[in-house]
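Crash report, auto-generated. Payload:
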Amino acid sequence: MIRMLQGEHITVRYGSRAVVDDLSFHLGEGEWLMLAGPNGAGKSTLIETIAQGVPYTGVIRWEGEDIRTMKGTKLAQRIGVLSQQNHVAYAYTVEEVVGLGRYAYKAGMFSGRDDMGKEAVDKALELTGLTELRRASMLTLSGGEMQRAFMAQVFAQNPQVLILDEPANHLDLKYQQHIFSLIQEWLKEPGRAVLSVVHDLNLARHYGTHAVLMDRGRSIAEGPVQDVMTRENLHQVYGIDVYAWMQEMLSQWE
Amino acid sequence: MPHSRLLRREQFTPVTYLMLTVALFFAMVLSICIGSVPISFSDTVTSVWNAAWGLPIPENIAKNIILNVRLPRVLCVTLAGAALSICGAAMQGLLRNPLADGSTLGVSSGAALGAIIAVTTGFVLPGFSFGGSMVMAMAFAFGSLILTLSLAYTLDRSLSTGSIILIGVIFTMLISAVISLLITFSSDHTRTLSFWTMGSFSGVNYDQTAILAIALVICGGILIRFSPELNAFAISEDNARHVGVHVKRVKMIIMITVSVLIGVCVSIAGTVSFVGLIMPHIARMLVGPNHKRLLPASLFSGAIFLLLADLAARTILSPVELPIGVVTSIVGAVAFVVIFYKTRKAG
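Recovered output after restart:
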C-alpha cells in the first residue's frame, strides 16, 4: 500500500490546552479513512491542521515531503479540502465558486491558462447535480445545495486526496447517498484516497475502509474500520452503548 | 429548464464599459463647465483637445481657468475617486465584509495624522512643495497598517477579519482623538488642519495629479492582478487557503497596496469618507461580486461619484466652497442606509 499522506505526532494547542494531542495517522492509496469521535474530540481541528490553517507541532508528509514546505498551489493540486462551515457574503454564482477550485492550476503572473478548467468545472457541476443551477446566486441556495456547490469546487480542484469535514452536512438522505456513492466511485481511480469526518457512524462504518477513533485530542484506536468501530471502543469514547441505542432506533422500523 | 428566480444575469458587457466611459466623460466635462465662471461645452472640449495636441487655443476662451484651475482639479478628483473606490472594493473582498474600506484599517486616519504632523512641525522636502505631507501621510499609513495588524495578531494569531476590523475601528477612534488634540493646540493652523479631516481638492495642481496617476496605475494594477485571490478571500479565508492561495502573503500585499494608495490620496485631498465604502456596493449591483469585473467597475463608479460630489461642494453654496468630505458623507450616509435596507429586505 502506497502511503500518500502521513501525520506524525501532531499536536495543536489553544493556549495550554492540547486540542489535538500527539496524534499520528497514515492514509494509503485507495483508503477512505474516517475520523470519528464525540464533539470536541479534535476532528475538525485535525482537518484544518492538514489544510495548514492552524499552527501545529509534529510533521505532516505528502509522499514523504513535509507539506509545510510545499507551495499552496502544489498542495491544492494534491489535497482538496471541504470545510464544515461554508457561507458566502456576496452573490457569486455557483459556477464562479466551483471555478475557484481551478485556482491552483492558473495562479501566478504568467500562468493564466487552464485548458482543463472548463471541462473540470462542467464535470463537477454534473456530478453534484448542479448543472441547472450553475448561474444561480449562492445567496439563494439551500444549505444542501450550497454544500454540493462546495463539494463540486473540491471535485473541480481534481486533487488526489479528498479531506472532507462532514460532507453530509445539510444534505437530505437522497443526496447523502448520492454524494457518498460518488466519493466511493471517485476513490476507485488509482492514486486516490479520502479522509473524512463523519458524525453518522452508520455512514462511517459503511463507506470507510479505515478509521481513527478520537477522544479529547488523542487517538483511542486506529486501523481497519471494523476493528476500530467496535461496541467497546464506541462505548468508551461516547460514554453510551452506541450499539444498543442504534439497535433500538432501528427496531422502530420493524 | 433552470429556475429563473435563481439566475444571476452576467451584466458586465462591453456595452456597460462603454456606458460607464461615456458617463465619466460627461461628468468630467460637466465639472469643468460649471463653476463661478460658466464655460461652454464647446470651449471646454476645444481647450482640452488643443492643449493635448499642442495646438493654439483661441483668445476668446478662458483657457487659464480651464487648463490651470479646473482641469487639474477634475483630473485629480477623477483619480482620487477611482483610487478610493478600488481600495474599498479590495478591502471588502479581502475582509469578506461589505462594511470594510480603507478606513476600517485606520489607514486613512493614520495618513491624515501624518499629514497634520507634517504641517504643524513644518516638515518639508526641498524642491517638492507638498512632499513633506505626502511622505508623512504614506509613512503613517504604513505605520497604522503595521500597528493595526500587530495588535490584531496579538489578539488573534490567525489574523481573522473580525479581529482586524475591531482593532481598525478602535485605532481610528484613537487617531481621531489625537487629531482633535492637535487642532485644539494649533490655533495658527486650525483652518489648514481642518482640511485634512474633511477633505478638499481646492488648489490641486498637475504635479499632484501626476503622482496620483502613477500611484493609481501601479497600485490599481496590482489589485486587479489579484482579482482571483480576492474572489477566494471573499468566499472565505479558509476557502482561499484550500484552493491554494498563499493567504498571508497575498493579504499583506493587498493591505500594503491599499495603504500606499490611500496615503497618496489623503496627502493630496485629505480624508474623503464613504467613497470607498459606498461605491463598491454600487459597482457590485451593476456587475456582480466577481473582482475581475468589480474592480474596474469600482474605478468608474468612484470617479463619477467623486466628480459629482466635488461639483456639488463647489456650487451648492457658491462662492463658498464646502469641504468635499461633508458632501460625500451626507450622500454616502443616505445611500448606505438605502443599500443596507435593500440588502436586508432582499436577504
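Post-recovery validation: The CA atoms of residues 62 and 325 of chain B lie 29 Å apart.
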